[in-house]
Amino acid sequence: MHITMDVVFHEDSMYFSSESELQGEYHKEIQTLDYDYHISEEDESGQSELVNQETGELDMSGQQFGSEDVFTEIPNQSSSVEGVLSLEPDPFMKRLPHHHNKGCMVLEKQCQKVCKLKKSLYGLKQSLRAWFGRFTKSMRAFGYCQITGNDPKERKALQNYLSREFEMKNLGPLKYFLGIEVSRSSERIFLSQRKHVLDLLWETGMLGCQPVNTPIEEGLKLCVEPNQVSTDKGRYQRLVGRLMYLAHTRLDIVYALSVVSQYMHNPGEQHMNVVMHILRYLKNAPGNGILFTKNVDHQSIEVYTDADWAGAVDDRRSTSDYFTFVGGNLMTWTSKKQNVVTRSSVEAEFRGMTFGLCEALWLRLLLQDLGYLSRQPIRLFCDNKAGCDIAHNPVQHDRTKHVEVDRFFIKEKLDDKIVELPKIRSKD
């Protein structure tokens, strides 16, 4: 493992800069050799939205904190404190001479030796996982199990505890986190990524472009053409990646992104043109986002599903779409190509119903974790009558044997009164 740092030679000694921030070259770490696991907990799509929705619904206040020493709080394995997740195995680094600066003195003859890190560094792949473990154990030691609360004394006690455990800053009321802007009134909470959109338009030179009214042209079918004009693959992947993060607050570009993301490995000029079209659409209203309003029934869950049967030109797979509402507020949304080729529109719709129901069940469990046990059945809307009939009908049909698992999954939830299937027309 190699670590970059600032040093200066002076006579027979070498000085390491005490002010420079050591950064690990994480791309040189090898899994199973330098580390075992590096995957850490992340904010799933829908978690922060649901917390914000319940915060506004119950008139709670959002408080924001920042830690200045996130990764350097994590010790190595041999120097770890009991009950605190450490870096395993112990990380080592080579000394690499760079710029002139002042700092602690190390003899030049010791340059052939390696350094054993006492704590983590920014850039190590396992740092995020170890930090989450460190923070989780501290919170559990405090006895904190819920992530929301409206007791000022409890919030103050938590703030004092975190300040003792870490170098924490109180950033005041929640206004900006992870690139998402938060605006709040007594009745509403609004999330947007306006700055992210404007930065993206400025970096791509699209601030002065002519805006369009749709994120993708109606009826457009993309494919990999035999003699297609190539484009900058790295630039294409970066743009699509940044647009995907923008989809956290922009439902309107999700389908267009599901189309262009299928060609990350071999993009052509026609695919890049669609990405530019999305940017021109964003120029039309960069401040759009999600609005959460108060509702009487803030625990009701509704799911709307649909499918584009055999819509992909390259492999004729279908695309499933669903979006969920909790308490009348839009919560999660997805547009994703299905894993298998479906032989009928009924099968495509039925698989889409299964995906949407799984998402709704996850939201139901998340509400329970927040302390709200919803006893109302989930309302699952699908405009395909045959798909709803299959879900209700326990008789096995020859044409639906290949979707037996999905059929019994939905039927079980219907029998348990966890979900219901209201009728809805396609135009609604």
Automatic annotation (TrEMBL):
Query: What are the residue boundaries of the Reverse transcriptase Ty1/copia-type domain, all occurrences included?
Result: 147-217
Q: Where does the source fall among the domains of life?
A: Eukaryota
Classification via CDD domains: RNase_HI_RT_Ty1 (cd09272)
Name of protein: Retrovirus-related Pol polyprotein from transposon RE1
Q: Which organism is it from?
A: Vitis vinifera (Grape)
Highest classification ranks of the organism:
Eukaryota, Viridiplantae, Streptophyta, Embryophyta, Tracheophyta
